[in-house]
Amino acid sequence: MSISSENAKAYWGENLRIIVTYLAIWFVVSYGCGILFVDQLDQIQFFGFPLGFWFGQQGSIFVFVGLIWAYVFSMNKLDEKYDVHE
Amino acid sequence: MSVDMLSYLFIGGSFLLYIGIAVWARAGSTKEFYVAGGGVPPIANGMATAADWMSAASFISLAGLISFIGRDGSAYLMGWTGGYVLLALLLAPYLRKFGKFTVPDFVGDRYYSNTARTIAVICTIVISFTYVAGQMRGVGIVFSRYLHVDINTGVVVGMAIVFFYAVLGGMKGITYTQVAQYCVLILAFTVPAFFLSAQVTGHFLPQIGLGATLESGQSVLATLDQLSTDLGFAQYTAGKKSTIDIFFLTVALMCGTAGLPHVIVRFFTVPRVKDARTSAGYALIFIALLYTAVPGVAGFGRVNLIQTLNGADNAGTAYADLGEDHWFKNWENAGLLAWNDRNGDGKIQYAAGAAFDGKGGKPALTEERGEFGQRVASNAKAGADFDAAKQPFANEVYVDRDIMVLANPDIAQLPAWVVALVAAGAVAAALSTAAGLLLVISTAISHDLMKKTINPNITDKQELMYARLAAIVAICIAGYFGINPPGFVAQVVALAFGIACASVFPTIMLGIFYKRMNTQGAIAGMLVGLISTVAYMWYFVWGGGTADEYFLGISPGGFGTVGMILHFIVAIVVAGMTPPPPQEIQDIVEDLRIPRGAGEAHAH
């Protein structure tokens, strides 16, 4: 390990913040829009879909793909900031 | 050319391709056998992961399931894709940094205990075997329908192919074969989906087509709702299950996905930590290509099925008018469709309700033929009672959900080559998953049991031999289950996800994110998660439990979530009461949180 332990702690802290942020979006989109509030959202029409139904069967999957790539880019940047990239 | 000829050509051609790749990518060392030498590029690994992950269940069963349950199917769509977010954010990069070969490797080393390792081996083997049985069955179904061979012969041919490239090539052979299989299966799923969507809605993309408006001025989904309610079915876009049940089922599928050993092990094959994250991203793109097309295929298939069977005048189709090679008769001969002419008018009518007295409306087909040449079932419902307030006639048809994807191109009268392509795709989906699972089983036995637990002194060469032997035995057992399937494949797969969710996922997560977690906590947690989940499923599937006894209304498929919560609580409480792990283990945890220095996946 070429990195001091304070730096390692700071790196890990930022990493955890990124994870928590993205998982919050993950939860809201899938469990929030697709399950918990699906009946309310279904009252809204969205390109021919009831909105809750769309989130459950299409929208959440698109968001998942976006989340992983956003995480990849955030982490690559963070790795370089703390000089822990390979 | 006929569908039969084309099917032989497509399936045979794809087999030649897989064998060619296997010969090219033979494994020479345990490292190549277990993790493909740790040098797979992220895009290739993403494709291989997608093929590994998308099994006969995703390819054949998922769209059929959604076709019949409508909105509640969201649990499966979100569950089987959302798990990749958990994998990418919580597990994959750290496991790659840890740099071992298997899940039991991580558990055994992180918790410095062979007991913990052995429990992880047991979980791995149970999960993988329950999962592989369904794959072999899928191969058998496709062979019996398209190549007109016996299901058992189909299973044996499938075994022989997997045997060839899994035993020869190990992870290296499997990875590059899976890349080819991904291409076959994604083409085979999306091409008919484009055709169907264009035919029904005029839009090529099923993702857009499902929201389109039809010539009647009604949207596809509104048409589906109306068709369904007119025939006495529940509304397609409305949920039937309770919110809590769907919630727990989705969590169990997501965390189960993230905890499946054959998926996790794929992230050991890439060169760097960064690549582990990237390949999770690629994998989900490749998976989403299929998964976002599934709801369209399900919806269009349902519309076509209802309209074709009941005819334009909604009075039914005369059985005598069906041609000899009609899809209805083909699937009837395969035993997955059946007709019981309850009102004696010679016409097939499809509506809500069961036409046969078997469990789930299943027919017990005999060799006898009826008045019109239809297959006769010994448990056909007598009389034609139905609720006239809800539907126009009594249901006379049994449709196995699993035929929807395979029969769709037939029903929509797509060109013969599309039908053959779908058959080759289904075989690719089943074989790629089966191979990944078999590798995990053989590795668990040769590496985690033989090398790490029983006899650490064996050489690399001997270990490789054990790995190949274990793969051979595993293939034979999987084949046996394919030929004599347990009559409860769906429940068994739910069990695999439940165990992965309640035991594997939490123990790895705690190992990475909770430095204080020790052997005692890990073992207690895994056992509590494993035992509670298995016991609950056992009671409701085999022990005669009924739905009104469900804990908080949670069905067995969703109970893995409860097991996982128990696991977390027990593990943290027990770890708090016992001594912390030794300093060198805490250092390892610190180290695996930092990407630099991942090096190669190593054995020692």
From TrEMBL, chain B:
Gene3D superfamilies documented for this protein: Sodium/glucose cotransporter (1.20.1730.10)
Pfam annotation, one family: SSF
> Which GO terms fall under molecular function for this chain's record?
symporter activity
List the membrane topology term(s). Multi-pass membrane protein
The primary site where this protein sits is membrane
The yes or no answer to whether the keyword Ion transport is present is: yes
What are the GO cellular component annotations?
plasma membrane
Alphabetized, the UniProt keywords read: Cell membrane, Ion transport, Membrane, Sodium, Sodium transport, Symport, Transmembrane, Transmembrane helix, Transport
GO process terms (BP): carboxylic acid transport; sodium ion transport
Where can this protein be found?
Answer: Membrane
Residues spanning the membrane: 6-25, 75-95, 116-134, 146-167, 179-198, 246-268, 280-300, 416-445, 466-483, 489-514, 521-542, 554-575
Which PROSITE patterns does the UniProt entry name for this protein? NA_SOLUT_SYMP_2 (PS00457), NA_SOLUT_SYMP_3 (PS50283)
What family, per the record?
Belongs to the sodium:solute symporter (SSF) (TC 2.A.21) family.
Q: What protein name is recorded for this chain?
A: Cation acetate symporter
